[in-house]
Amino acid sequence: MTARVIASGPVGEIDPRVYGGFVEHLGRHIYDGIHEPGHPAADEEGFRTDVIALVQELGVTTIRYPGGNFVSGYRWEDGIGPRADRPRRLDLAWRSTETNQVGLHEFSSWLEKVGSELMLAVNLGTRDVAEALDLLEYANVAADTAWTRQRAANGRDTPFDVRMWCLGNEMDGPWQLGHRDAEDYGKLAARAAKAMRMLDPTIELVACGSSARDMPTFGQWEREVLRHTFDDVDFISCHAYYQERNGQAQEFLVSAVDTDLFVREVVAAADEVAAERGSDKRIMLSFDEWNVWYQFADDGTKAGDLVPDGWPVAPRLLEDEYNVMDSVVVGDLLITLLQHADRVRSASLAQLVNVIAPIMTEPGGPAWRQTTFYPFSLTSRLGRGTARRLELEGAPRVQSTRFGDVSAVNAVATTDAEGTSVFLVNRSVAEAADIEIDLGELDAASLSLVESWMITDPDYRASNTLADPDRVTPRPLEVTREGDVLRVSLPPVAWAVVRLGA
Asked: Which entry of 170, 224, 251, 441 is annotated as an active-site residue?
């Protein structure tokens, strides 16, 4: 059976921040990841230039920092001033020692090198409104104050001008330092938001939403938090991680169905609060943690609990090795986020280097791309402008234990000044999908094929490793054209993009 792709209406303009990343002080992410002063490729500040080049290629626009669970125990003042004077601290989130050799100044310098903007999280776990205001003043204010004089003494005369701020992290989670219920967090977030807006009315603020759709407080958490913060925040966050469990590949491949439901249900909760207030304001979604993450072994052991004893510096933690199937799921999650471009205005792939990451490094050695690097880099480069809904006629179906009868094919289109891109995925673990794309419906009949790529492999568990870093790479996708119809065939477990231009 051939699936026919027909364009529907536009979803909305794609905010470039949907192609964001996430850097946390966790494991080898910063130390031995982005920052390794003794590496042959290190620059004068100790940052690995080979990693910088890969982050640029990946195309991340905004990077959330410094956590994550780490931020709920973090004192931002530890990361400023002369490095020799910075204290070593115990990080309770990941049972590690933080050296504070990279802080706000160093990380901002790295962001300038990679060409990304900073999205800063404040500690509302073990700290309060005063500390959040101090950080905001240090980062954004140009007036002559004690904090801005200290910033200048530390080498920065002009403000960092951080636009987007997260009001804590995963405060619904019992694992989080300073965990609160929705009412207590909502009141704290509202106090912080009001105060921060008094200091800088131009910033955008993100309230903590649910850490996962299966949290017991999901839905009610969003409603309660927004009843306190609605007037003072712009976004509510969503966090979602997926993995294959017990060899159930087909179930894993339809993970994006959960993301779609997650977005719809959070939007419904936010709009319910708006309706209660008689407001036409629309709270946007910041999907500021999402990825494939093998958190659980088949026996139920949680990876995040397997942290070492002895408070080591930069231990190897959460260094998942991703395969073709993981890459296809990541591509499908990107398609789903673009399908909701009207409300998902920010998203952060979690994380960036070494820790559940598209980029891996070896101390003193090479850096390489994991399989998940490719759908992100191609979508970030080619998926700009306006998102377009695509209807699928005659698509093959797969069966899911959680979601029932599900389309094997998922798709979205984007249109910009230079052309149109069509993103496709075949979620079936067993059947190929023949697909027709009607260019007339896309208003793209006058355009020609510019490039087309597919990620797949007969062994969908193949991965890129230190020994074989290019085992899996995008391959050209064969596209045929008859009049205004393009035809492609996607093998099982495949993600693809077709680019059309003048």
From this structure: 170
Distance CA 466, CA 453 (A): 24
Q: Is 170 a catalytic residue?
A: yes
Contact assessment for residue 381 and residue 501, using Cβ atoms and an 8 Å cutoff? no
Write the CB contacts of 484 (distance below 8 Å, at least 6 apart in sequence).
438, 439, 440, 445
DSSP per residue, 66-109:
S-SGGGGG--GGGGSS-GGGPPPEEETTTTEEE---S-HHHHHH
The pair of structure tokens assigned to 248 is 């159930």
For 10-53, the DSSP string reads EEEEPPGGGGEEE--S-TTSTBTTTB-TTSTTB-TTSBBHHHHH
CA distance 63 to 215: 25
Compute the Cα dihedral for 95, 101, 102, 105 and give only its sign.
positive
Whether 304 shows a pLDDT value over 60: the answer reads no
Helix ranges, 219-323 (H): 220-229, 249-253, 256-276
Cα distances (Å, whole numbers) of residue 282 to 220, 265, 403 = 18, 14, 28
Are 435 and 489 within 8 A, CB to CB?
A: yes
Label residue 320 by pLDDT band (50, 70, 90). Answer: very high
Q: Is residue 447 a contact partner of residue 413, using CB atoms and an 8 Å limit? A: no
| pLDDT tens column, 129-143 | 999 999 999 999 999
CB 6 within 8 A of CB 390: yes
The single residue of 98, 251, 289, 441 carrying the catalytic annotation is 289
Q: pLDDT tens digit string along 261-285?
A: 999 999 999 999 999 999 999 999 9
Mean pLDDT value across the chain:
96
Q: Is 133 helix (H, G, I), strand (E, B) or coil?
A: helix
Burial of 149 (0-12, 13-18, 19+ CB in 10 A): exposed
| Residue 492 reports pLDDT greater than 90 | yes
Confidence of residue 2 (pLDDT cuts 50, 70, 90): confident
Q: Confirm if 103 and 78 have CB atoms less than 8 A apart.
A: yes
Q: How confident is the model at residue 290 (pLDDT cuts 50, 70, 90)?
A: very high
Quick check: 489 pLDDT over 80?
A: yes
3-state class (DSSP) for residue 268: helix
pLDDT tens digit string along 238-253?
999 999 999 999 999 9
